[in-house]
Design goal:
34% of the residues lie in helices and 18% in strands. The chain has 285 residues and is an alpha/beta fold. The relative contact order is 0.07.
Length: 285
Amino acid sequence: MNEKYVPAEVEAAAQAAWTASDAYRVSEDKSKPKFYACSMLPYPSGKLHMGHVRNYTINDMLTRYLRMQGMNVLMPMGWDAFGLPAENAAIDNNVPPAAWTRQNIADMKAQMQPLGMAIDWTREVATCDPGYYKWNQWFFLKMLEKGIAYRKTQIVNWDPVDQTVLANEQVIDGRGWRSDALVEKREIPGYYFAITRYADELLANVADPTCPGYLHGWPERVRLMQEHWIGKSEGLRFAFPHDIRDASGALIGDGRLYVFTTRADTLMGVTFCAVAPEHPLAAHA
């Protein structure tokens, strides 16, 4: 027995044994309960950082614990390699996006494997592979068929440098969070998801301890953040009549300005009604 603990020697020997026995390859075993231990896939920037190590160590500990409890646990790994960041990085480095992404994946995998995590590398995926994203496209078409996804025109935050739409949370002091460019308001068509249809179900899973998806053990502030993000409001939708007309003299819409309020008891005290700059009435008032 060595008097000193030399991590490189001990870990190399242990990992060699795991590799030789294919210890983390997962196969069907109906005699054991299943558990899918999938962490958020990393974006292949080319370098791991301590946030990656922290994230995947937590899942690694969970995987090992559940395996010791007799469960059949799958801990896969993959790469969130599809989309704007890879394209912009490739442009900045003057290389094709595919070459940039594949090299980064190889570099990060070489950094990750010595950590010795219980990953089944035979299940590795990259979201830029056609064999993977064809299923994203299939899911989207199915949602489009069902009306869960739909197309409409809307005022959006446009980043003129990244050439993309930004969520409100990605606009910081009027600038894009990644490019720092001044964000523009544009009216463009796009695809949207009817997630409000599921507000009641989502809220029940957040707020009702009897629901299967309830956030047991989560801090109250996290639960409240989820509840506020869903943002369901209960109130009344009503309309003010108007006589605003376009240049031809035709009445705009059906002659009613629709309003939602959570305080119907205050309606008799209304003194004015404001509309957003992009509202159809704003161009004619």
